[in-house]
Design brief:
Largest sheet: 6 strands, antiparallel
Strand content: 25-35%
Number of strands: 17
Number of helices: 5
Radius of gyration: 25 Å
Shape: globular
Distance between the termini: 65 Å
Helix content: 10-25%
Length: about 325
Amino acid sequence: TSGDREATTTLQVCSGEGELVPEDGWSEHGGIHHYFGTGYMCEVFVPPAAIALPEVLVVFYEPSYVPPPIGMNPGVPGAMLAFTLEKQDGPYLNCPVTITTEYTPDRLLQYGGLGESSLHAYWFDDGFGAWMLLDDTTIAIDREFHRLSFTTDRLGLIALAAEADVDHDGLGDAEESDTTGTLPSVGDSDDDGILDGDEIWFTRSDPLDPRKIAADDQNGTATGLSSGHSYYIAGRIICGEQQSDVSNCVYVRAGGATLGDTNCDGGVDVFDIDSFVLALTNPGAYATTYPDCDIMNADCNEDTTVDVFDIDSFVALIVGE
């Protein structure tokens, strides 16, 4: 375990060498606390009963020395950022707290670039002299706003670290070699104008197929857009060598498409009931049975998803409400 550290130890923290951020009391009734480091912010959600005593002092600071990446995942060159949350009565909590860290994008450029999607949270175990990976099931990464959330039932020295990202596409080098199959040294493996990481995280397409640059409806083998179908479309602005991030996907319905006309006979009536039920229960069979129809005609409540929540809206269209 990490044990307790003396709060009087001279450490480099976000507000200057040897100066500690004022102590902050955590209540047994829970609460939300904010701490600010160099180029990042930590928000800690403390649930009720996480603290044993009525009030416990917790100190946040940045260490002047961060141990080497022993125990971290292979390919991790070191901590992207590290901070200590020190509780006066020891590192352990009665139940986990949730820590959300928001960092500036330039932090990812350390060590020649880090793959944001391969970020992990670690806790340093003084007894073993190594970093311990926190439970991966609790990790949530928001690449759009550069946030990472995780839970932990102990405090102490915590770090966020990721694999090196040589081609700066947002994916770690080992992640590309072992998981996605993309090229670790080429940012746009299929040369379609969208970085590999953006295709996986934002457009939800295929970084290995240049024909698939849109989202879910491009998971087939079509070579282009068809005027008879609707699409999720995302894009970026390119000006010379500068380019924006890929936009969020926007759903565009094809001209002439009619909500509720799931058999594509040009009308919305009782003859659409069987095809609507098929679209709802077996999308694959629907695509085979009605190859010239867009399944999104069954998205009668227009929430971009075909599901049971479309039934009431479909009935309303059938009866003419």
